[in-house]
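PROTOCOL LOG
Step 1. Enter all chains and additional molecules of the complex.
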Amino acid sequence: MRPGWLDRIWPLLPVLAALAFTSVLLLLFKASPVVAFSAMLEGAFGSSERILNVIAFWIPLLLCAAGLLITFQAGLWNIGIEGQIILGSIGATWVALSLELAAPLQITLEILAAMAGGALWAGIAGWLKTRGGVHEIFGGLALNNLAIILTNYLISGPWQPPEGGSFRGTVPFGEHALLPLFDGSRFSPLALILAGTAFSIVMIALRNSTWGLKLKALGRNSRSAFLLGVSSNREAVLAMMFCGALAGLGGAVRVLSWFDSLRQSISGGIGYLALLVVMLAAYRVLWVPFVAFFFSAVLNGAIVLQLRTQLHSSLGDILTGVMVLFVLLLGDPIRLRGLRRAKDDG
Amino acid sequence: MDNGQLIAVLASILLQASPLIIAVCGETLTERAGIVNLSLDGTMLLSAMTGFVAAHLTDNLMLGFAAGAAVGAFFALIVAFSSIQLKQSQVATGFVLTLLGDSLSAFLGQEYTRLPGPSVPHFAIPILKDIPILGPIIFNQDGLVYFAILLIFATSWWLFRSRPGLELRSAGERPEAAFARGVNVRRLRYLYTVIGGALVGIAGAAYSLDVKIGWSEGHTRGLGWIALAIVIFGGWSPVRGAIGALLFGATKAAATVLQRAFPEVSVVAFNALPWLLMIGVLLLVSNKIVGRLLVNAPPALKRPLQRMLQVAPPAALGTELKNE
Amino acid sequence: MRVELQNIRKHFGEVRANDDISLIFEPGKIYGLLGENGAGKSTLMKILSGFQKPDGGKIILDGKARRFDSPADALAAGVGMLYQEPLDMPPFLVLENYLLGQRRGFAVNARQAAKDLRELGKKYGFDIQPEEHIRDLSLGERQQLELLRLLAGGAQLLILDEPTTGISTEQKVLLFDSMRKLAKDEGKTLILVSHKLDEVQDLCSQVFVLRKGKLVGEAKLPCPNELLVNLMFEKLPPRRERASREQKQVALELKDAVVATPRLELQPLNLTVYAGEVFGLAGLEGSGQEILLKACAGLLPIRSGSMQLGHQPLDQLDYHAARAGGISYMAAGRVEEGLVAGLTLTEHMALVDQEAGFFVDWAGSRARTKERVQHFQVVGTSESTVEQLSGGNQQRFLFAMLPSSLKLILLEHPTRGLDIRSTDWIWQQLDERRKDGTAILFISADLDEVVERSDRIAVFSGGRMSRVVDAAKTNAEELGHLIGGEQ
Ligand SMILES: Nc1ncnc2c1ncn2[C@@H]1O[C@H](COP(=O)(O)OP(=O)(O)OP(=O)(O)O)[C@@H](O)[C@H]1O
Ligand SMILES: [Mg+2]
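Step 2. Run joint prediction.
Step 3. Record the structure below.
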């Protein structure tokens, strides 16, 4: 038997292993891990502006992860969440470019359009799965790529800025169309309130609502759930659309506060990152905000690292990815113990 | 278009499809044994990068392919270990590796983008290349294409005609029954996951060393997913999968031709084609659609329709062996 | 081969599936192994055949202690087991299925192997077609193949776990004949695990009885059935006579209804089921009776013709509307189709709560679960997950979840795999329902059960429904002929 203290620090092992792995990579490129990690740390928390950046990046990530908790509960792999963020951005941009209203009304409409856009894209993936028998991973993936292509088309076509054909983005939106920002940063308190509300709703839905229970049954055994009276197709599509709406809201936050216009690669990989967040949190609701915050810090740190050392910013993605991988491989001492027992037997 | 041009187009389709065929054969082997290696997209990116860098540094083509294969085998080994030994979700591990392969290839390959390197030499097979029509299409190619073609028949024979193939399929269909007959399901699953992964790695290297020579970030992005979809479309059969890969190549070639013919249509429409196609073919072979078709089809058409469209995954795909 | 089991122990958590069991099987004889559900019969046989490892104890074959790492190991030592659901490869060809696991040669010599297989079949009176797909065979034929495979593998001891569920009368006769032949002419040892006492009496010369993981008795056969029942159950409630049907109100009516799946299209159906009636459907699995049941449940569309529940047309009904309209459907697979593994009993109750609002009423659901668990004598608590329940208790819990007033209950194999006590209990529950005017339409592979429990019966064969026969005026033999396709 393993002594108790080892069990207690066990969850740290994947984190340490991931840090060790990235250190080796840094050494390969003749960069000092100490310098690099402290640059990242400073990049994330070095100034109040940077901390606000981390929070601003955290908000859409949290929204997406909250939505994914719902789809995972229903046993669905919503890989299409990237595309849902993008469609949210497109929805918000559409309202921002085509209407001129008073700020509160304008922003409300933008957000609603964004949520509708995300829900639509998710709904298509759900419909392909339930009606067409196309696994949501493949449907979602194709829709992600189609969403990227659609963005490129829009910003190089109909929504191209007047000054010319760059592939970069639309014109910046007017002040009234953007979310009110905190002290010149990219952080919008309104977005934080929205994300907090969304997360609470998800938490309640999962714990105490009939819908959450239905999704749980659906995720474990869709056939039995159907026979017990759950309209499995409808609930699956609804779960997808719910997640899509939150992802769309995240997309709105991206265009209306992080940026000020629709850009290429607007989602910034937040959708995939959110999938990693939920996996690292091992589908435990309360862990999700913390893990998401941590990931946000890592990625923001990596951007500063790139500016400092010219090292590719994908180091941040590597660090998060490796961490989740090590959690899958090492995170559960019980499984590993089972492994050892199997070896003793053989 | 005259005959000569047509033959050139067909030959180029075959060349373009070759890496995809190799990856599809590899993943078909893996899935037939009951494991989904979802990491194909990341695996191919990382092996394309590694393969190119290894060949570039050593100036040795074979080492490039070997490095690609090693990367593929290693990623596959992780998938196999986590699912067979730790009973983790194969989708979860595969997905993480997909992302990781992508970001690792970007990071590790950052100093090797857009550099020259060795590439697979052209090699026409004497005598065979002179067969009318087929000769110039199939036998006036390079070694990679021949490898891909041989691989189709080799995997197909192995799966459906050999005794080890029988055991391989049994591990994917009903591992408990296979176990009861003395098949070492776990070992087989390890073996074919790793072999399949190595083939996927070779496919990745084939892009950077032959089809789209060189390395840049995101070099093969998306193709791994296409390969996974083709495995389904191919009904987990190498021959059908190869046909799928060729059809995919043909559609892309057709898109290029059309794009030239209709320059006023936005390039976007053509970029969207592979993904629309992916959804389309998966719909076509899905049980829901095929079932509906079959019930309503005239009796004479039922059999051929069923044979053509109905595909069934290995029954135990993605599940673990329960022997206690 | 003389087989001796010494002090076999196997625990699953708290459950002592096998608790210090010692037994001896002599060559040339057929043994019966009896016991209620969960007594530990299958566990003991799986240990003997190498599918599971014992926690303690010894297996001694002809005086030599053996340890098996796998079923293949056991077969090499001469022990073969036939499972109730044959452990074969449905998508494979008969020939491939036969070849799998035989270690000889790299490439397959299909022609020679096919010839061998056919000849082996002939020897035991089985007609084998090597080029067919396993999935197209009947359960009985698949069983024959498994038997041949074990014999070809050199089995000296053959274990058959509930082999007669779901096979035709002819196949059963054929099976029993070959079993007798194997014991008498070839000196093999056979063990029959079964809940059907008549079969055991007919075939075996000696029985062992297990209860709660312990060996509680043995008997030389033939002996009175009561003696066996008393050994198996500590006490058995007396069977109640069931009342005959009185009402003449139509509950379900089908007129020229056509139902089809991609595999099978039923001949147009005409059928009337009355309120309070028990209507039995017999037939080999896959002959169309399941399709009829699914159509009545709203799981398959009716393509032409009509269906009525009382006076209400049901043609375009979907499953959930049918449920709301008072039709309940219970599928054969309890944990696959009916219960959700991982969910507790309380969660199940909350899920089927028809008055549920947006929020789950956890307290109310828990109270209701406790009350039902007690009333339906489910061994388990409100916080047990369903996969922790034994098969009989899972079936009880499914009944506990049924709404209180129903017009029609559709049942697929309601008592499959259950022992006499649970079977009786289930039919008592159904009898209670009948009194309230609920009609019951059920499928069973057990012809005796169909004859005994139904008011009227129809038999399916190859997608066609026979004439309807009165249960009081028929017997299992007549049904057997109807199953064979006679009119
Ligand atoms: N794999 C397992 N995990 C946990 N418990 C098990 C397992 N297999 C059997 N059991 C438990 O062990 C006990 C004996 O089961 P077993 O299947 O041997 O009974 P049985 O006599 O064959 O019953 P039946 O007549 O229903 O087939 C039961 O309580 C069962 O729930
Ligand atoms: Mg049993």
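Step 4. Note key features.
The radius of gyration of chain B is 20 Å.
DSSP finds 14 helices and two strands in chain B.
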